[in-house]
Amino acid sequence: MQKMAKVLVSNIALPTTAIGSWTTRMSHFITKNPAIFDYVLSPNTTLKTAVYCKKRTFITWQKQVRKLQLLNWVALDYVKQLKKIAQNHNKLVIVVMDDPHLVEAISLIKNKLNCKVELVFSFHGFELNLDSEIVASIDKVLWLSQLAADKNKVKYKNFPEIKVVGNAVDSNVFYPLQASEFKTNRAKKGYSETDAILFWMANDRPKKGFHIFKSVVEQLLEAHKELKIIIIGSSQIINHPNVNSIGRIPNNEVASYLQLGNYYMFTTLYKEGFGLSMIEALKCGNTVLASNLGAIPEVLKGLKNTYVIDQPKNINSWVDYFNLAITNSNFEKERLAKSETDRIWNYDDWESRFLSAF
What we know:
This protein has 14 helices and 13 strands. By secondary structure, the protein is an alpha/beta fold. Helix 2 (66-74) packs across helix 4 and helix 8 packs across helix 12.
């Protein structure tokens, strides 16, 4: 019998090429460090350590059968495999990636497994929404920000151990182009070297604030006739010749677009756990304007070319800060160098914190 095993639990296939707040980072991590986890439970079988598990949807939300359904249907694959793995080890360290249902299911069987279990929840939101009993059964929570950890510590009495590991963006993928390459790549996409380009990138959920961005753009285009807009990820359209809505694109193409920009607006209307896309944009050389919600002020604290909007529902606030950004930041000025952006939420720093956390 082996002494200990580390198990990674994910409802999303790992590794993956899909766009996601943490999937790219974790795919990179487990590919680079294949020996860290002895088992990777996810809907994928490409790794040597992979064990195929798929999360199912709830059939009914009736409270009286919820736990039964969770263990015997929704999380059944994961429960069965963990019971098998536990038979061959004295201890399991189980790291659950940002899924409240899976961490709940594992907490319910934790004391029934045939070995000691340390349950670690890698949480990527800002506010936990779990029953107190479930939180008390988790041994450790990995947070993206100290702000989120502190807020939730007040909310729950029996709070698990706290580890703030933050987040990261690959500096070898997201980086500012040198002047000649910047000019060439812009020309390939139909933009001139002197065009001012503003990006917005998110999905269509209302809480991402596309309706706010649309109203802001309508005002900006009145004052800045030559301003160019690129929208990524949304199917919604702003009907103007200066606006290019390119929809969803593969994750490996995101940087090639962001590297062409000058400005990035993150108009989220809810408390973000981190706000990864704004760091991707910043590392590509854009000035970032973002809502003052959730962990965002902590994430952007001390970083050049960033503006935090205290009233994100106020259209004029965005317009005023954009005009300030034009005056103070990178349009027609020297862009941030790669040596500067490499230090911003660096991948190697995150990897070190993540490894030491468990």
